[in-house]
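**Protein fold record**
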Amino acid sequence: MRAKPERHVNILMIDDNPADIELVRESFEDQAVAATLFAARGSSQAMAILKGVSPAQPAMPDLILLDLKMPGMNGFDFLQELRRDGNLQSIPVVILTSSSAQEDIDRSYQLHANAYVVKPTGLDQFAQFVQSIRSFWLETARLPSPQTGKALY
């Protein structure tokens, strides 16, 4: 029998590809995951959201899904800035990218990513990815408490 997550979680997906965002969103909905998925179309927008400049997200995320290859501030730059910020550094980050290059994997972990996943290529694989997020991050792992306990506005 599947254990229920202890609480509803907020997930911030940072990706410049709207189709990938929609696939993940639909997979979360199809599997009735106890999470709200928010999206930022790039690292700069995500950092603005996290630092309270943008009202696009009502609460601090419990987990971040981060693409690496984006225009402007790429995922590496975002991760480095996130880890330097005392208010944000403990948010778990799962790299979700199309790159399977070993140097990208190594650099992500050097910058303290919590996991590295190559983007699935089909609907079934996206569903499997979401199930693995649910199983590990929402049911097995214990997430840190929200940093501020407040909404970001």
Summary: Residues 123-140 form the longest helix (18 residues). The radius of gyration is 14 Å. Confidence is low (pLDDT under 50) at residues 148-153. DSSP finds five helices and five strands in the chain.
